[in-house]
Design a protein that fits this description.
Pfam families: DUF5917, KELAA, RAI16-like. The chain is mainly α. It contains 32 helices and no strands.
Length: 689
C-alpha cells in the first residue's frame, strides 16, 4: 500500500516538474556504480546481486527517454556525457576485470541494449567503436564461455547495425586509423555539442567527474595493472574472430546465430571492407583452419556407405539424424560436412573479393594439402575414404568460385587430355586409372566421384573428360560417307579387342536387331533405328522385365551398396550420365550404333555387342537359366528375400545389362524424338533420365 502511494506521489511530482534534470540523475547512477568499486571489500558477491544491474538499467532508460525528447538527429546531454567521459571504455575495463563476478555479462548486455535502443548513430564515434572492439576481444575465444549467450546477442546487434549501414563495417574492421581518415574527409567522429562540451570548462559535472575520486581515471587506477587497456593503438579487430569462435560453440542456437551473423557480415561488406577482410583480417585463415581441424578430428578410415548416407547434413543441420545407425566418427563426420557446407554458403554470398580468396584457401588447405596425398596414397583404405569424402563434398558444392577451384584441383587447368599413364603425379590421370582398380570398392567410389562431377554446371568438366578425346572424330573411319548395314560391320572374330577366346562353334550371334539403318535428310541415323538397335541387343531368352511391373533402372539402385553387381551398375550409371549431354559428338559416339569405326576403335554399341556375345556363351552353362534369372530380378527389386544362388553375379549382370540397354534407348528417344507416330517403336521406357 505504501509503495503504491509512493508511486502516485512520484507521478504527481513528475507532473509538476517536467523539467527533471536527467543529466543529474544519469551522473548519480554512474557515480553509484563507481562508488561500489571504491567502497566494496567483498570480492565474491556476484554482480547480479549488487545494485550495478539496476543502475545500468536506469542509465539506459534515461538515454532512451532523453532521445525521445530531443529533435531528430540531435544528441542530448546524457549521451554527450556518456561519450565525453568514456563511460563505455571504463565499463569495458570493468568487464575485462570480471569484478564483481559476472560483471562481463552485465557489460555485454548494457552495450547490446544501448546500441539497439538508442537510435542516434553511435558506432561512428571513437569513444564507442573503440570500446566495442575491446569488448569483442573479451569474447569468442573461449568455447564454452559463460558469456556466450550475451556475446552472440552483442554481435547480433552489431551485425544488424552494419546491415543498416554497411559503411560501419569499415570502422569496426579497420579501427582508429580509418576513423582518423574519415575525420579528415567527410564523416565526423564527434558530435558537435560534444566538442563544445569538452572545451567548456564550466560544463556541469565535468570537473567533478574527471578530477574527483569517482572519475573514470580514478576508477581504472584501482584495478589490477593487467586489466588496463593501453592508450595507443587498437590492434587487430576481433569481430571476425569473435564470430568464428562463437560458431564453434557446443550450444546449437549460439553457433547457428553466430554463423548467420558472419554470413550477414560478408554479404553486406562494401569493397573497402571486403578488401580488408581478405588482406588484413584473420577471416579466411580462421574459417579454413576450423575446417581442417574438423577433418583431422574424424577417424582415418570411414565406410563409403556411411559417408554417402549423410545426405541431410547442412550448415543449419550439422548433426546426423538420430534414427540412423551409429558408427565410429558419425558426429565428427557430420560436423565436418556441415562446416564445409557453411564455407560454400559463405563463398556463395560474399563479395567477389572475399569469395575468391576463401575458395582458394579451401582449395589449398583442404584439397591440396590434405585430400590430394590421401587420394594418391598407396593405402587402399586411404584412397577409398578420401574418394568417398570428396564425392560428398562435391555433392554439397554450390558456389561458382569453389566449384572452379574444385574442377582445377581434380582436372587441372589444361584443356588437353589427362596426363599420360607414366605421369603418376597427375591427379586426374590417377583418378581415371582408379576407375579400373584391382579393388572393386575403389573403382565404384571413383566412378561415383566422376558421376557427381559430371552433374556440376562447369563446361570444363565434360570438355576435359570426354570432348577433348572426341574432337576431330578420330574414331570414325575415313572415306566412308554412308554407314554400312549392321551385318556388314559386325565381325566379332576380327575385333582386335574381342580376345577372350570364348567363341566356339556353338555360339551364334544375337538375332539381327533391326533392318539396315535408315537415315534422315541430314544423313543422321533415324532415332527409331537407334532405339530398336539397343532394345534388340539382349536376346529374348535373357530378358525378364516384361514379366514384372515397375521394372526400371532406378529399381536396383537402392540395393547397390555392398552387392556383387554394384560395379556394373555404377559403370552403366556413369555412361548414362554421359549419354545425356546434348553434344553431337557424344551422341554419335555413345548412341549411334551405325557409326563407321576406324580400325582399332570401339564405340559403346560395339562393346555391348561383345558383352552380349560373351553372355550368350556363359548362360548356356547355367542350368534352369530362365527361372533363376527371373528369381534374381525379383530379389533385386525387393519382391522376395535375398537368397544365394549359383551364378548369381552373372545373373545380376544380365538384369543390369537389359536395363542399361533400355536406358540407352530411352535416352536416344528423349534426346531426338521421332517426327510423328511410329507404331513399331516401343513405348518410352522406365529409367532415371
Amino acid at each position: 500500500m505504501l509503495s503504491r502511494l509512493g508511486a502516485l506521489l512520484q507521478e504527481a511530482v513528475g507532473a509538476r516538474e517536467p523539467t527533471l534534470d536527467l543529466l543529474e540523475a544519469f551522473v548519480e547512477h554512474w557515480k553509484g556504480i563507481t562508488h561500489y568499486y571504491i567502497e566494496s571489500t567483498d570480492e565474491n558477491t556476484p554482480a547480479k546481486k549488487t545494485d550495478i544491474p539496476w543502475r545500468l538499467k536506469q542509465m539506459l532508460d534515461i538515454l532512451v527517454y532523453e532521445e525521445r525528447q530531443q529533435a531528430a538527429g540531435e544528441a542530448g546531454p546524457c549521451l554527450e556525457y556518456l561519450l565525453q567521459h568514456k563511460i563505455l571504455e571504463t565499463l569495458c575495463t570493468l568487464g575485462k576485470a570480471e569484478y564483481p563476478p559476472g560483471m562481463r555479462q552485465q557489460v555485454f548486455q548494457f552495450f547490446s541494449k544501448v546500441l539497439a535502443q538508442v537510435q542516434h548513430p553511435l558506432l561512428h564515434y571513437l569513444n564507442v567503436h573503440r570500446p566495442v572492439q575491446k569488448l569483442l576481444r573479451l569474447g569468442g575465444t573461449d568455447p564454452g564461455s559463460l558469456t556466450e549467450k550475451e556475446e552472440v546477442q552483442f554481435t547480433t546487434v552489431l551485425c544488424s547495425k552494419i546491415q543498416q549501414d554497411p559503411a560501419l563495417l569499415t570502422y569496426i574492421l579497420e579501427g582508429k586509423k580509418t576513423v582518423a581518415k574519415k575525420k579528415a574527409s567527410k564523416e565526423p567522429t564527434a558530435l558537435p555539442r560534444e566538442t563544445a562540451s569538452i572545451e567548456n570548462k564550466d560544463h556541469p559535472h565535468s570537473e567533478a567527474s574527471d578530477r574527483g575520486p569517482c572519475g573514470a581515471w580514478a576508477l581504472t587506477t584501482q584495478l589490477p595493472i593487467e586489466t588496463q587497456e593501453p592508450d595507443g593503438g587498437i590492434g587487430e579487430s576481433n569481430l571476425v574472430t569473435s564470430l568464428v569462435g562463437l560458431c564453434k560453440s557446443k550450444k546449437g542456437r549460439v553457433a547457428l546465430k553466430a554463423q548467420e551473423n558472419l554470413l550477414l557480415l560478408v554479404s553486406v561488406a562494401p569493397p573497402a571492407a571486403a578488401a580488408h577482410l581478405v588482406q588484413s583480417s584473420p577471416f579466411c585463415p580462421a574459417i579454413v583452419e576450423h575446417l581442417c581441424q574438423l577433418h583431422q578430428s574424424m577417424p582415418t578410415f570411414l565406410d563409403p556407405a556411411d559417408i554417402a548416407a549423410s545426405e541431410g547434413i547442412s550448415w543449419r543441420v550439422p548433426s546426423a539424424p538420430s534414427d540412423e545407425a551409429p558408427f565410429p566418427g558419425k558426429e565428427a563426420l557430420a560436423a565436418f560436412l556441415g562446416w564445409f557446407d557453411y564455407c560454400d554458403r559463405l563463398i556463395q554470398e560474399a563479395h567477389t573479393v572475399v569469395a575468391d580468396a576463401l575458395a582458394k584457401a579451401v582449395a589449398e588447405k583442404l584439397f591440396v594439402d590434405i585430400l590430394q596425398p590421401q587420394l594418391l596414397h598407396v593405402s587402399e583404405q586411404s584412397v577409398l575414404t578420401s574418394t568417398a569424402l570428396l564425392t560428398a563434398l562435391l555433392r554439397r558444392l554450390r558456389s561458382p568460385a569453389l566449384l572452379q577451384e574444385a574442377v582445377a584441383f581434380l582436372l587441372g587447368t589444361d584443356l588437353r587430355p589427362a596426363a599420360p599413364e607414366d605421369s603418376p603425379c597427375a591427379l586426374c590421370a590417377q583418378l581415371i586409372r582408379h576407375c579400373d582398380h584391382l579393388s572393386d570398392e575403389i573403382s565404384i567410389a571413383t566412378l561415383r566421384l566422376f558421376e557427381e562431377l559430371l552433374q556440376k554446371p562447369h563446361e570444363h568438366i565434360v570438355r576435359k573428360l570426354v570432348l577433348c578425346h572426341l574432337e576431330g572424330r578420330p574414331y570414325v573411319a575415313r572415306g566412308c560417307p554412308e554407314p554400312e548395314s549392321y551385318e556388314d560391320t559386325l565381325d566379332l572374330e576380327e575385333d582386335p579387342y574381342f580376345t577372350d577366346g570364348l567363341l566356339d562353334a556353338s555360339f551364334q550371334p544375337p538375332a539381327k536387331p533391326a533392318p539396315a539403318p535408315a537415315t534422315t535428310l541430314d544423313g543422321k541415323t533415324a532415332v527409331t533405328e537407334i532405339v530398336n538397335s539397343f532394345l534388340c541387343l539382349v536376346p529374348e531368352e535373357a530378358k525378364t522385365s516384361a514379366f514384372l511391373e515397375e521394372t526400371g533402372y532406378d529399381t536396383y539402385v537402392h540395393d547397390a551398396y555392398g552387392l556383387p553387381y554394384s560395379l556394373n551398375l555404377q559403370v552403366t550409371s556413369v555412361l548414362s550420365r554421359l549419354a545425356l549431354f546434348p553434344h553431337p559428338l557424344i551422341h554419335e559416339y555413345l548412341l549411334d550404333p551405325y557409326v563407321n569405326l576406324a580400325p582399332g576403335c570401339r564405340s559403346l554399341f560395339s562393346v555391348l555387342v561383345r558383352v552380349i556375345g560373351d553372355l550368350m556363351q556363359r548362360i548356356q552353362r547355367v542350368p534352369q537359366f530362365s527361372g533363376k534369372l527371373f528369381l534374381v530380378r525379383k530379389q533385386l527389386m525387393g519382391h522376395i528375400p535375398g537368397e544365394q544362388l549359383d551364378h548369381q553375379t552373372l545373373l545380376q549382370g544380365v538384369v543390369v545389362l537389359e536395363e542399361f540397354c533400355k536406358e540407352l534407348a530411352a535416352i536416344a528417344f528423349v534426346k531426338f524424338p521421332p517426327q510423328g507416330p511410329h507404331p513399331h517403336l516401343s513405348p518410352p521406357l522406365e529409367g532415371h533420365i
